[in-house]
Amino acid sequence: MLSKVYDPKPVETKWADAWQKDRLFIPCPSPKRKPFVVVIPPPNITGALHMGHALTYTLQDVLVRYQRMLGREACWAPGTDHGGIATQNVLEKALKAEGKTRADLGREEFLKRMWAWYKECGATILNQLRKLGCSLDLNPDNVRFTMDSKRAASVYEAFRSLWAKGLIYRGARMINWCSRCGTALSDIEVEHEDEKSKLWHIRYPFQDGSGSVTVATTRPETMLGDTAVAVHPEDARYKGMSGKMLKLPLTHRSIPLVADEGVEKDFGTGAVKVTPAHDPLDFEIGKRHNLEIIRVISFEGHMTKICPSEYAGLSVQAARKRIVEDLNTAGLLVKEEHYKHSVSKCSRCNQHIEPLVSEQWFVKMKSQAAPAIAAAEKEEVKFYPPSWKKPFTDWLNNIQDWCISRQIWWGHRIPAWYCRKCSGPGLKFSDRGGLSRVSFAQGAKPVVSFEKPPACPDCGGTDLLQDPDVLDTWFSSALWPFSIFGWPEKTKDLEYYYPASVLVTGYEIIYLWVARMVMSGIEHMGKPPFSQVYLHGIVRDRHGKKMSKSLGNVIDPLAMIEKYGTDAMRFSLMAQTLGGKDIPFSEETIIGGRNFVNKLYNVARFIQMYLPARPGPLTAERPDELADRWILERYAAALDRSKAAMTEYDLPKAQDALYSFVWDELCDWYLELAKPRLAGPDKEKVMGLLLELFTGSLKALHPFIPFITEELYANLKLYLDKSQATSHRSQVKPDSGEQRRAGYLLEESWPAAAVAASDASALMEELMGVITQIRTARAQFEIPPGKAINALAASNDASALSRLKAGAGYIKLLAKVENFTLGVGLVKPPRSVSAISGPFNIYVPMDGAVDLEKEKGRLAKELERVRAESAQCLVRLNDPSFAARAPAAEVEKIKARSKDSAGRISRLTIILEELSD
RNA sequence: GCGCGGUUAGCUCAGCGGUAGAGCGCCUCUCUUACACAGAGGAUGCCACAGGUUCAAAUCCUGUACCGCGCACCA
User: Fold this and answer.
1) Which residues 92-151 of A interface with strand B at a CB distance below 7 A?
2) pTM tops 0.90, yes or no
3) What contacts A512, CB < 8 A, 6 or more positions away?
4) pLDDT tens-digit profile of A393-426?
């Protein structure tokens, strides 16, 4: 006998290995079948998978397995992402622990270590995906990496093509600089956070001694780089002053007062200091007024040498403190106010971002955004939930050029080369404090080439240097939907599988990734990379807080798998991914999943008890009792509901329909009714139906909980008629010589059941109501479940009574009734408990005396309930406008309910009166 | 500042126009040979607030409050 409790671990390991070994997930293009393609969001190789990965990959696996069972050629190609800054930070952290920096190692050695890390971490991640049950073929020949040679070719081609079209350029612009990561960032990699700070009011005196102008700033240290003070041209307070010179405090420079529309009259003093090198707005003002750009903050986050010597070299924080003190001493600090404002932080390391002017590579986005917006508007790319369409198009409508160069080492190096000779002495690479920057002579033009060009096309010089920067990691991610199929090579896969069916990912990367894929798909492939985008939420802790190490609320999916099994975790994740909302997750929700998996295991155990020793198909003849007809109807309904929910990406609903069918109907009712029949003449027919329904449920549940279903099916399928096992692929995919196990559940068809409507449900529900009433009476008077009782049912409705008579067997069985008497006008026996169900009065005689007060209380409460119901009906029926305006069916329904409750009231009243006598 | 969500049982959430639901937790009874990771039964809700639309509102509309989350160059 098998253990009573299911142990998932050996089972899950066994099947995960078998699926991989038999290479069941390797897609094979076939003109006969429509592909179903899911583009995997490649996990960054930054470490182990977290709960968010578990969610997104489970979701995708459910869709892929489901579509595979519907007969589509499912393609879900695995891969990992090099993850740029995030991954480089992992290694830098490790180096720091060794007391080293990346500069100590040098670029070449550092990259060697990064590749070693990729090998280790990449393998770990793939193994974790296998444990998650993902139906990905993880054989090395099928796994992609954003930095492998094929993807490098894709990246180069995309760069070359954009460059050739003039969509890539290099120039000095205001960018976001993270001095901790040592690199520029794009706008979306910057997060904004409210921070308490101060607003300092500083007086700038006029050079001619005619008073002063007071400016307000949150960043006093940048004043050393001020090259103007700006006011609004129509600000009366500063009328006629524009063009006058001001003395810049703490320096020996003087700067002009300029008038600019960009200044907000009503803010602060109406005068703003202008630091073109360190503020985006100031940069714009500077351009309009041709102001000098003085960079006073270095890439390392220190005050530069241009600053007066007492400040040069100080950190930004130290300089701020010192400057405020000095201004105060000089009597130029007018006031200090408490102030809350939003500051920019690096999304990778949470350090303050320094806006500064720097030469970087950019992609022009406006022209690429336009067709992407159109695709969303026309729903060629459709969002689930649809509410994401607006944020998507809004962002694209306001898109800025994309800064794609990063001053790190890990990534695709920018394929641009510079001729030393042509560029002149201005071309030089510098390496300061671990940062590589390059500066160029005016007009130096790079040559775009994947490999080092043999000679400079202009002067024939052979001393060419490659740009030291690498591309933003999202540059390669943006190409993923087609680079995974080998683009720019025109492969068969690319032709068959592009565009994908659906992209599933978290909403937090809708701009970072989704929008860019849509744009580059249209740009390079001529059409959007997928037609549907399913955006899910973020896994949070049970109270909705983001999981973070510092809060200590992180749940490790691998630990949960270890403890409860993958199926249990998948089940509980899928139960909660509704409507793209964030998912509150806690360990206890997994227990629900585990319990269900255990339930299935025990149903199988039950069935196996009655299975003949020698495997072989059971009879296909169906039993035809009420319960049989009823359960078939319920089964068909559950499959329908589940299927309908799947097409709407409502996975919780799809899963729940099957869950409640199995637990609440198949187990709680049908199985119990089947028990005695399994010892009778109907045995084989009942077993046949039970097996059909249960294996069908396993099939339908397989996408959600692949392991337990595969396991149980493997044991039961030997008893199934061959017509019930229908694989899509066995015939399309001939054995490649190797011995391959056949008959996997995952290759079966998703079940179908067509059942004609009948009265079975209504009849069954009537019986269930009576059974529940008797059970309730038993429970209220604490009759032990094992103890048999007698019961009587009385009614004036003869046809109802005959229905009940037909179902008496079920009542006796499920309510544990020994003698069940029924008839018209039966008299309530002394010392009995009463109940009402539909048209029936039910009496349950007790052994001893009945606690009259308890019984009266119980019935009085029921009476009160029915009276309320009746009153509610009457209110509506007495309202003439209800009859006039409500649909006829509704009026009929209420009339029937009213009549029914009136009858119950009188019957209850009589019973209560008799009790009081 | 603009935008988007949320507010329903102790907790986490479904329901989105016709008698308030699930899971977990709680209480009672049962270890009855599928399952105590179970079975049977039970308690628990002014469905955030205020107006409106409707024969009928948790459900639609309009406001308000509180809580989240995006986007945004007001120094």
Assistant:
1) none
2) yes
3) A188, A189, A474
4) 999 999 999 999 999 999 999 999 888 777 665 5
